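Researcher: I need the complex structure. Ligand is pyridoxal-5'-phosphate. Inputs:
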Amino acid sequence: MLPTAVREKLAVLGGPALRNFPVPVWPPRSQTTAQRLADLYMSGDWSFNLAGQTKEFCKDFAAYHDADHGVLMVNGTVTLLCALAAHGIGAGDEVIVPAVTWPATAMAVKYLGAKIVFADVEPTTLCIDPTKIEALLSQRTRAIIPVHLLGAVADMDVIMSIAKRHDLVVIEDCAQAHGAKWNGRAVGSMGHVGSFSFQQTKIMTSGEGGICITNDRELHSRLYRLSHIGYAPGEAMGHYKSKPDADLVCNNYRCTELQAFLLREQFEQFPKLIDTYNRSLKYLDDRIANIPGVRVQSPGRLTDRRSCFKWTVIFDQEPLNKIPLDVLLKAINAEGVPMSRGYPPVYRHTLFNLPPSDYVIPDEGCKVAEDIAGARAAGLFHQWLGAGDDVLEAIGDVLTKIASNSASLRAMG
Ligand SMILES: *Cc1c(COP(=O)(O)O)cnc(C)c1O
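Model: Output:
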């Protein structure tokens, strides 16, 4: 027997909303951090220095992700660009990118003049489908960029074995997966380079920012030079001694010490945040398992510590699979839960304006990206996972209420 509130008329049809949630605070703020930030501000040491915030943060963040080196940059788009450039990828090369991701993953390929090759995604994880990769390889394929999307980790075992077989570079796009682990290994440390974003919506943030991590000392040096207008790691400001490799087009993508400081402050709290998120994800997944019509995004075959950018559900089962997603979302929003549509395939994204000659779509199309990720998935920003047990319970109640009112929703659609 369902609780009374769940059996009420839907809010979108004039019934009472199940909940009226306050929006959880993000990014986290504290007076202590504000005071310490003020001290750093007064110090005037805002750009890079060898003993500063940036150096400490890079070391700690890389170590937490099983990597020896980190290079902090201005955002998680140029980190992808540098990860590709560090491998000499450019005009005439092809790079495989999942059809479902933030447009930046594909744009990084374009900035270097290489061709974007879109691969379809798995219906379970919504991450790149490794069984679709080999059919897309050509003589020109140089790299794969698996994206650990929303709340899942791409199948790194299969991807790495394909890469090994065909001598391909693997750049992990971890912008949505800080802290996740796959089979005991942290994301970002399994491929050749791991790229993260610290943009304001991500689960660790300095407003803007990004980092490349790697276990390869030579790659670290190339990444550092690429983003520090040619400086080598360890060279103090104004005291450059050695020349970058001739093939590197070095730029200035450095982040400020103020941002690195904010990241260090958040990093102290990060293990606790990840624990909370993992507990909340488990609760929600168990709760949703019993609701007809909806399933949760799978975290990945061997994912043993989860991360989350958006908690994501997929409405592709009876009795909700025939109701348009916009109708479902309108009803869910009216009950007090601000879920929103998942990503369309990149090549259909409003912000993506490249001509078809810049990219390749597989002959059979990207069916899962089109019909599931883009049409039946919806997500809730990660900060809701930290909003407390009563909020989690209510999210379950709202989806229960939606499922048990599918007949009236179908009439609406
Ligand atoms: C956010 C994001 C990026 C880009 O990071 P920015 O810091 O916003 O430049 C790249 N890839 C994915 C998957 C992202 O979510």
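Model: Summary of the prediction. Residues 257-289 form the longest helix (33 residues).
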